[in-house]
Every structure is written in C-alpha cells, then in structure tokens.
Write a structure and sequence with these properties.
single chain, 14 strands, globular
Length: 273
C-alpha cells in the first residue's frame, strides 16, 4: 500500500499559500485511486486550515513538525512531546535578546489550546499576533499569566533570518529542544522558527502513522530542514525544484517548482492518474 505525505509551504502550496486547481484535481484522483495521503507541516492546524480548505484530507494530519495531530472526521487532536516550562527558560531569554516575539502554544487542563506571548517587538510579532487573534477558539494571554506547570506544545515566531539563526544556535545546546527555521518563500526577509521537544519530528510521526495504516511504500515531498527526517525513513523522497541544493542532495529525486504544480504533475505521471 502506497502512503504519500506532503509538506505544505514550498511544496504543495503555491505562492498564494493555496492549493492550485491542478493540485486539487490531482488530490481527488489520488483519493479515487485508493492511495493514502496526508500533510506534514511545521504550521499549526489553525494556520494551515485556510490554506487547505478546498480539499478534505481524510487521514490524520500532522502539524507542528509531528507534535500535533488532527483528525478531520473525528475532530480530535493528539499531542506528543510535551515540554515543561523550565525546559524553555533559556530559549525565552534568547528570544528577548534578539528582539523576536515568541508565541508559546500550550494545552490547558480542559484540553483547549492556548498561546502565551510577551509584548510584541516589531511588525513580525504583530503579524503573528493578528493571525492568531483571528481564531476564536484559541485562548491568548500574556506570558505573565503562563503557569509554572504549563503543558507546552511548541514555540513559534516570525523574524529576520539573522535573528532567528542565533536562537536556533542557542537551542542546539539544549538537550530537550529542537529548532527549525526557514522561509523567504513569500517574503525574502521574513523567516519562521519552530521549537519543540527533541523526541518528536515529522519522521517519527509519519513512521507511526504508516504503521497504523499498514502502509508498505512511503513517498514524501518536501523542501526544508524539517522535512529531512521524513526523507530518511521514506522509500521515495522528493524535493521540489525550489528547495536548497543540500536538501535536494538528500532526496531520491527532484520534482518541479512548488508554484508550478511540480508535485501534482509528478504524481500524475508516477501513478498514471
């Protein structure tokens, strides 16, 4: 049984952060052919929802680089790799030093998701705040209100790449954390950072889901550092043409550009859709 997994930004989405008509038609053909498929992204479920709203991905969807799972039919979450507050204190100091606004995603005791944040430093922080504040089912509060026993899912932010690279370097020396940063897809000087527990990644989540589906052939598509853990476990791993050369070097092959339906056109040939 084939199982196909897509990264979103720079891979399945176009420059408008949407699924193109060609991609939508290809996904429908995959479903009709009985081929299992899903998404695995660094985005949160809420941030990804408007990007993929034109297609109902039927299986568990993987968010926050494997920390968060969402099942569209059952309307339930799974979470893995929960952090404790003491594990992120040094990283929060690094955010402050670099004047980058961190948004700390947590699970409350009643299961509701919440986000704690300090005062925003600049337009990057304002951009994230406005996007998160648009979701009525997401509790937002000052970092001063974050309890000491908070169950932390991840930390996300936008910023200039130079600032974010320093934060990533800080995380590399901390046993329980892993940090990914990338971007420049939509705005050249706007990059993202995602930090979560080092026990969890796209690869481990997809490996678990593959076993649950009893799939035998894993095919993945990606363009960034956070996709490499998927590449390592896949039977076939494809980088989009817009991916950096060091990402392409670790793939089985390269498909077309993300803004030119590269993944969809490859799938039509690969499966004869």
């Amino acid at each position: 049984m084939d199982f196909v997994v897509f990264d979103l930004d720079g891979t399945l989405l176009n420059k408008q952060q949407r699924l193109s008509e060609t991609t939508l038609k290809t996904l429908d053909k995959l479903r009709q052919a009985g081929i299992a498929y899903t998404v695995a992204t660094g985005r949160t479920h809420l941030a990804a929802a408007p990007c993929i709203q034109d297609h109902n991905f039927p299986l568990w969807q993987i968010y926050k680089n494997g920390v968060e799972w969402w099942h569209p039919e059952d309307q339930v979450y799974r979470h893995q790799g929960i952090l404790e507050r003491h594990m992120i204190e040094a990283t929060l100091t690094s955010f402050s030093e670099q004047e980058v606004t961190p948004f700390i995603f947590c699970i409350e005791n009643d299961g509701q998701q919440s986000v704690y944040y300090p005062p925003t430093h600049n337009h990057y922080g304002e951009t994230v705040y406005k996007e998160l504040a648009s979701h009525q089912n997401l509790l937002m509060s000052s970092i001063d209100n974050m309890p000491n026993n908070a169950r932390i899912i991840n930390i996300s932010a936008l910023g200039h790449p130079d600032m974010l690279s320093s934060i990533v370097e800080n995380c590399q020396g901390q046993e329980h954390l892993v940090a990914y940063s990338g971007g420049g897809i939509y705005h050249s000087e706007t990059h993202w950072i995602d930090i979560h527990h080092s026990s969890t990644c796209k690869g481990s989540a997809i490996e678990q889901l593959k076993q649950e589906l009893n799939a035998t052939n894993l095919i993945v598509f990606g363009d960034g550092d956070n996709d490499l853990t998927m590449f390592k476990i896949a039977d076939e791993a494809y980088a989009t043409d817009n991916a950096p050369n060091y990402i392409k070097a670790q793939a089985s092959g390269t498909v077309g550009h993300h803004d030119e339906d590269g993944v969809a056109l490859f799938l039509n040939k690969r499966f004869g859709l």
